[in-house]
Amino acid sequence: MTACRACPRLVAWREQVAHDKRAAFRDEDYWGRPVPGFGDPKARVALVGLAPAAHGANRTGRMFTGDRSGDFLYAALWRTGFANQPTSVRRDDGLALDGAWITAPVRCAPPANKPTPAERDRCRPFLERELALLGDLRVFVALGQFGYQALCGLLGLPRRPPFAHGVEAVLPDGRTVLGSYHVSQQNTFTGRLTEPMLDAVLLRARSLADLPPAGQRARSRLRAGGD
After folding, report:
1. Which neighbouring-strand residues pair with 170?
2. Considering 65, 117, 222, 223, which has the largest number of Cβ atoms within 10 A of its Cβ?
3. CA-CA distance, 98 to 70, in Å (whole number)?
């Protein structure tokens, strides 16, 4: 998958970003290729986003790593018992996930964070094979409407409830798709998605996946936040 060049627009953009670089990262070697999924091979919960960020995963080579969206997401995964640490800055930083896998329908950074339907469809076989290999999955958490639509289509749920934060859709095989607002800065900086809101979805995913309780970190955050 990391050698794929099927989408000319995405290939050009990911490589342009990796060549030009952001000033803050000018001394770093950008990944500049399709980004693979990351996590626990025995995961019961899969989180599905949109696509790598130009100076986040396209730079570091790991999903949701090295940008503000990832900062928000991995802190929540730590609070809810899915991660061993609250930060994700590079591939060799010691981060490990427990019970969770993170991936996306599109594996290359798209211009303006907007992949086209054709690009999504060309990338679909990678997601399909990846999820099939994760044989213990019980719950899918869609981070945003794009991921929700891609998941429901791939998993065979044509008559699905409209996307909303906290929406639950039960698949014919009994597994569940949960919806969450995306962890983009547009949502987290404006308060559309708060820490307690995301924690609540992740704790619900733990429950549906029959994973052990997460402990006190997320519950104390939920009580303090009141959302």
Report:
1. 176
2. 65
3. 17
First CA to last CA across the chain, in angstroms?
39
pLDDT reported for residue 227: 38
- Residue 83 CA to residue 17 CA, distance in Å, equals 29
pTM of the entire structure? 0.93
Q: How far is Cα 56 from Cα 67, in angstroms, rounded to an integer?
A: 5
Question: What type of residue sits at position 106?
Answer: V
| Residue reference for tokens 């100076």 | 55
Question: All domains of the chain, ordered by start, with CATH?
Answer: 8-225 (3.40.470.10)
Residue that is written with structure tokens 């929540």 in the block: 76
Contact 1, 126 (CB under 8 A): yes
Query: 66 in helix, strand or coil?
Result: coil
DSSP track, 4-39: ----HHHHHHHHHHHHH--GGGTTS----SPPPPEE
